[in-house]
Amino acid sequence: MNNHYSILHISDLHKGENNDFNNLFASLCNDSDSYEQNIPKPEIIVVCGDLAEGANGDNADIIIRQQYNEVEEFLNKLVDHFLNGDKSRIIIVPGNHDLYRGATIRSMDLIPDEVREVAKERYFKGDHRYRWNWEDFHFYLITNEAEYASKYQFFIEFYNRFYNGIRSIDDCDMLNDVVDLPEYNITFAIFNSCYRIDHLNQIGAINTRAIATSQANLSKAFKSGRFIVGVWHHNISGIPTQTNYLDPRVLHSFMDFHIQLGLYGHQHHTEALYEYHDIFKQGKMTLISSGCLYGRGKAMPEGIHCQYNILEIEQNDKKVNVTLHVREDETGWHIPSWRKKQINGKDSYLMEFNLPDIDYKRILSDCISQAKTEDTYLNAVRTLIAIRDKEPSADKFIDDFLKKLSNIEICSIEFVPRTIAQKISVLGACVETHAWNMFDKIVNDIKLEGINDANINILITEANKIR
Fold it and tell me: Are residues 124 and 137 in the same domain?
């Protein structure tokens, strides 16, 4: 396995009223034609939140939906240009601007002064329903949980419409998708770091239940030798006057669950490479922040312009090399003009990761068990085909599981049948579905191999009669 590709890592798209996504799209396409150092064109896109700017007031719902319509059109163009329309290779998470604060405002009631001490006690004990407002020096209580949960409404509408069945979100607080891209030997663990964020609470958080629920799928990816990348919105640390960042203790769980690289945004500038270490477990996790992509000049640190990252990936069976290339807009004009930004005096920065050893026997055992328990034989066959070169006993189970699939399912699997049983199953499915191109290819292979089997001969005769 030798892969060489790149990931387009962007965040904080929330454009201003006077900005135009068409200008941004043109600039990104133009920039990709002139990357230095022979950087490959991106084949995966990671969007780390803050897609919309947000709005408040009477017409907020109309304004926010229009913002999502605009960003959806922009992302569709990116997918068409860089990914040939394949939305399975774009990863999207929400940011704090993707929450509708009007819903959280309506969900809370001011706590009267006569019960202030009770509210204070519960607030400092960590009761998540209570909030403190520094503007009016009062406590508030979330009294309408359904209204509070609707803060994600507009993002969920956009997300489900954009992916159109490829992925979907029901409960945004439990977002914990594990997106596996086997052709790149990479798995993305995506989380919502806006858990319990609202107009009175800016502290980033990820629902611990969402992290724990992802364990089984991340363990499967680890056993398959995947390079596992976490994606969320918030940065991990901030200056003393800030509280709007993520509790770094979450990184312990990420490392335990085999996540080696974390991608995020939020702070509007590319963060200097930061490795989080656990000296007791001898583990580490590398964190990379993307800058603000567009339209937030006033909110960015002084001297920082719009930025995005290109992560160049070179991978073999044992190791992954990730080279960070930062692109920065030097003009601040309506059409960004991207140039390479140096990192500590260098044009790029190289990171090295070791891939886990693949436990083929464990994959085989888990695959067989899951197929029989959940009746998911199509996925099982695909997994077994992927490991049969390393685990020859997989062919026996492929023989058995093909018999449990429909003819259409069998013809949907692109593989070379090896055993007589596999050839018979595939040829039979081809005859029933009239998949003659696949049929002819297998028959040619059989002739080259010099196979003479009575059942195969019967299928070939039958096919010749009906074609």
Answer: yes
pLDDT at 217: 93
pLDDT reported for residue 301: 65
Query: Are residue 250 and residue 385 in the same domain, yes or no?
Result: no
Assess whether 383 and 306 both reside in one domain. no
pLDDT reported for residue 273: 65
Q: What is the mean pLDDT of each run of 10 residues along the chain (467 residues)?
A: 90 85 95 86 96 89 94 98 97 96 96 94 94 96 96 97 96 95 95 96 95 94 93 86 83 93 90 67 83 72 84 93 93 89 85 90 89 89 92 95 95 94 96 95 94 94 90
Cα torsion 246, 251, 253, 254 to 10°: value is 110
Quote the longest CA-to-CA distance of the chain: 91
- Checking 164-171 for CB contacts under 8 A at 24+ apart, the result is 164/87, 166/87, 166/88
Q: What is the pLDDT of residue 145?
A: 95
Q: Same domain, yes or no, for 28 and 99?
A: yes
User: How far is the CA of 371 from the CAs of 21, 102, 417, in angstroms?
Assistant: 45, 46, 20
Domain of 114? Answer: 108-143
Q: Which residues contact 76 (CB under 8 A, 6 or more apart)?
A: 162
The structural domain count of the chain equals 3
Pairing of strands 108-110, 90-92: unpaired
- How far apart CA 268 and CA 242 sit, in angstroms, is 14
Minimal CA–CA distance to 303: which of 335, 321, 329, 264? 329
Please check whether residues 137 and 163 belong to one and the same domain. Answer: no
**For residue 89, which of 98, 97, 101, 80 has the smallest C-alpha distance?**
80
Token code pair at residue 256: 């335990």
DSSP string, 258-274: T--EEEE-SSSSPPPPE
Residues 310 and 386 in one domain: no
**Final residue belonging to a domain, choices 125, 143, 161:** 143
* CATH number assigned to the domain comprising residue 156: 3.60.21.10
pLDDT value for 267? 85
How far apart CA 325 and CA 450 sit, in angstroms, is 53
Instruction: Give 6: exposed, middle or buried? Use CB within 10 Å, 0-12, 13-18, 19+.
Output: buried
Q: Is 332 left (phi over 0), alpha (psi -120 to 50) or beta?
A: left
Q: What order do you get walking across the sheet with 227-231 strand by strand? A: 178-181, 186-190, 227-231, 261-264, 283-289, 274-278
Q: pTM of this prediction?
A: 0.85
Choose among 396, 448, 393, 453: nearest CA to 428.
453
Q: Report phi then psi at 177, rounded to 5.
A: -65, 140
pLDDT attached to residue 380: 93
CB-hemisphere CA count at 13 Å for 176? 18
